[in-house]
Amino acid sequence: MKKISKLLVGILFSALVIAPSYAGEMSVTGGATATYSIGGDSSGSGKTLGISNELDFTASGELDNGFTWKYQVQLDNAAANNDDTRLEIGTDMGAIGLYITEGGMSKELHGVGAMGPGFDYHSPATFQTGYDVDGYGNIQYHSPADALPFGAQIKLGYVPDMNDTAQMSAKDANSNPASHSTGRNLTQINVTASPIDGLSLQADAAQTSNETGVAISTEEGVSANIGAKYTMGPVTVGYVEGGYQPAVESGEITYYENNFIGIQFDVNEAVSVSYNIDESNKVARNTVAAGATAGTTTEVEMEQKSIQIAYTTGGATIGVAQAEVSNSDYTEGSDENQTIISLAIAF
């Protein structure tokens, strides 16, 4: 872990020792989505109307030595002055990026869904899928595109301190970081490839570490995902299998085994339908009770089935999505459902 973090920092400073850049360009993109949602558990349901928005302010340019740069601020929360932020430097040897709650590397989503992949678009329940550097301030290295066989690309990410989750809108906002006694480092690797037309492969692995402090973990946290997506004509199929064991400081462990599958059919250029099945099995090993010779293990499998249909014309998408969840939030016997009618505008 230490070698990876030192490598990333070394490459970053090498890339930053450069001459001034040419004048850059500025662009603004984004979208707004209005939704009418009906959903709830078996005891009742509620209705809500909402509008979400996302604005990306992007500046980019080229340095006089051929390096490229890109700066982006994303505003998608009315309470945040400076939301997800990234600064990337592109070189012939790859790219270096600095990210604040950006730069996701986890590959638990297969990307199949008329309106969005499975539980990522909507879900009454919360799926536990593992670690991702985009929840923190992180630094990344990306290998050059098309430099490896089969269109493969490797990305390495490092989070110095998992305490740092707040937005930072000024250079000195983190001048007094949180105590590292409860903080951990996070290292993640991401690999993608396209060996043949229509097929994309993906994988990621992440691990926490706690180098200093009094709260040393007895079990470090780990997560991993591997999957594929294949498109043939109007049909696309995606599958992901993964596992997640959160870090613990003492006591017994809990881990999650996940399987996500989706199929999408594009009726024509405007209409798409999709069906997803998302399964997550929680395995909890309980502490040995007083007077007992062995502990107990409990398992609860949460399953969500969802269907989506979307109609796109110009920059607008009208969609309907419906999901049913059994053993919601890993609670035996708890069932929930949700229906969303939406209008999304991209600009």
**Tally of DSSP helical segments:** 1
According to CATH, the homologous superfamily is Porin
Task: Estimate the helix proportion, in percent.
Answer: under 10%
Specify the CATH class. Mainly Beta
Return the string of H and E elements: HEEEEEEEEEEEEEEEE
Structural class: mainly beta
> Would you count the extended β strands for me?
16
Terminus-to-terminus distance: 41 Å
CATH topology: Porin
Question: Segments where pLDDT lies below 50 for 5+ residues?
Answer: none
Per CATH, the architecture is: Beta Barrel
Using the CA coordinates, give the radius of gyration.
Answer: 22 Å
Number of structural domains: 1
Brief summary of the model shown:
The protein is mainly beta. It has one helix at residues 2-16, and strands at 25-41, 46-62, 68-75, 85-91, 94-100, 137-142, 153-159, 185-193, 199-209, 222-232, 235-245, 254-266, 271-285, 297-313, 316-326, 336-346.
Write the layout of secondary structure elements.
Elements: H1 2-16, E1 25-41, E2 46-62, E3 68-75, E4 85-91, E5 94-100, E6 137-142, E7 153-159, E8 185-193, E9 199-209, E10 222-232, E11 235-245, E12 254-266, E13 271-285, E14 297-313, E15 316-326, E16 336-346
Antiparallel strand pairs: 1-2, 1-16, 2-3, 3-4, 4-5, 5-6, 6-7, 7-8, 8-9, 9-10, 10-11, 11-12, 12-13, 13-14, 14-15, 15-16
